[in-house]
# Entry
Amino acid sequence: MDRVRRLIGLENMEKSGIKMYDGSGVGVAILDTGLCLDNEDVGGRVAAFFDFINDRETCYDDNGHGTHIAGIIGGDGRNSGGKYRGIAPKCHFIVGKVLDENGKGSVEDVKNAVDWVIGEKKRLNIRILNISIGMFPDAKTKEQFELLETVEKAWDAGLVVVVAAGNNGPEQMSITNPGISPKVITVGAIRERRVQRYYSGIGPTKECIMKPEILAPGQKIVSCKNDFGSYTIKSGSSMATPVVSGVIALLLQKEPWLEPIDVKIRLYERAQDMGLNKKLQGWGTINVLKLLG
# Structure
């Protein structure tokens, strides 16, 4: 995460003397495999948990994907002396377990989880919904439509919905659902300054909508493991998505009055152009210094 903080300009911002933000007070909902409470980097800031898979009451993660996502968004790095600190280390998490130990789930569980998050939005100041999962293109048309309808419902309810572009690239029109939604913010993966063309989903969508909108680091990201005091490395657009969610948490701490469309416009206006085809880079890469400066 120290490398990620450097790549997105957060390290330079810390050195510049500009007021720093840490995500305090901002709720980030994560729909994934859960979150491991034993990992102290993230386990102490779970404001709410609901298990849509096994109906367990205590927060857990029997896969590890969700804990890794949470660490990127807001791990505080205490088990690494701050080296593997997330983007918004004082945000709080609202965790919906919608994937089982094998990373599989159903649209129905995602629908129920989104309704739950919307219901808790005001009480827990949930501002962001991170969905680092996607549906295969050969899924049933009805399920595809229901998933799109669900994420757009969350957006319309005032949540900034941030989703992964998927790992089905490099062919065009390889963005996974729900990343094809014109409303949500879809994130692709880069390695250093290059697009991960060999796997990150590339637009446009079948409706000729430019996707992804924004790129972020997603290759070999060190973050929290579903174990006490441990870290692990994962790659993919799933890892790039929480980088953007974490940065948006900083933005909403600074300017809490912003609505989802305002956030999207701000990303568009202040993205770092990579000089590549828009089908590859969208608006460009996320840059914290430009976004918050």
Summary: Residues 107-124 form the longest helix (18 residues). The chain has nine helices and ten strands. Residues 2-292 form a domain with the Rossmann fold fold (CATH 3.40.50.200).
